[in-house]
Amino acid sequence: MKSPCPACKISFNSLSAFDAHRIGTHGVDRHCMTIKEMRAIGMTTNRLGNWVREIATQENAESAFKGRGVRKYPARTARRQRAG
Ligand SMILES: [Zn+2]
Question: What contacts 55, CB < 8 A, 6 or more positions away?
């Protein structure tokens, strides 16, 4: 999600994180959580300063791994049958 929330101007890493900060009922008392409230439900900011939900989605996990340059374990193509 590239654009910040139009109401509170906070940037979110994903639509799900954005949705999580919008509470209340549509047309009644729909509003944004405060930062204190977001932290209270386990939300935090990523290294880019965008808010994320604590429960990492697949999308978040993949982008985080790419950023850290984590490699996959090499496949075992050669297996030694004999010891010594
Ligand atoms: Zn907002």
Answer: 42
* pLDDT at residue 60, rounded to an integer: 53
Tally of structural domains, the chain: 1
How far, in Å, from the CA of 19 to the mean position of ligand 1? Answer: 9
Ligand 1 center to 17 CA (angstroms): 10
Please give the distance, rounded to the nearest whole angstrom, from the Cα atom of residue 34 to the centre of ligand 1: 8
Q: Which domain holds residue 16?
A: 3-83
Residue 63: which pLDDT band, with cuts at 50, 70 and 90? low
The model's pTM is 0.60
